[in-house]
Amino acid sequence: MRRKAKNQPLTRAEEEIMQILWDMKSGIVKDIRTKFDEPRPARNTVSTVVRVLERKGYVGHKAYGNTHLYHPVVTKEEYSKRQLFRLLDGYFDSSFPALASFFAREKDLSMSELEELIKETGNESGKKKKKKE
To answer: Quick check: is 3 in a domain?
Structure first.
């Protein structure tokens, strides 16, 4: 049974395979496996994780005989957005200013970098307002 991806967080191994599939666009297990650094995981391990990703709704496939060509169903942007909101809700009480100030402190952002961030977020909110009109 296929579950909704947005309710299924990924493990580290699943996320690593998704990163590979997002870069490759599609691939068979053998090709996915070659993208790992040495020591590479076993073929069966990669195959199992890909099938779990498919059950979770992140990956689809096309069958060519006994070979399956896997492709991402969820885009990297969609997944990143979900993860960011999960982080925002879970650790920053849904407060974007709290998240932004955390990163500003942790990354030691300069005043010009903070101004650039403000400018960028202003541009994004302006684009959203125009789309709604």
So the answer is: no
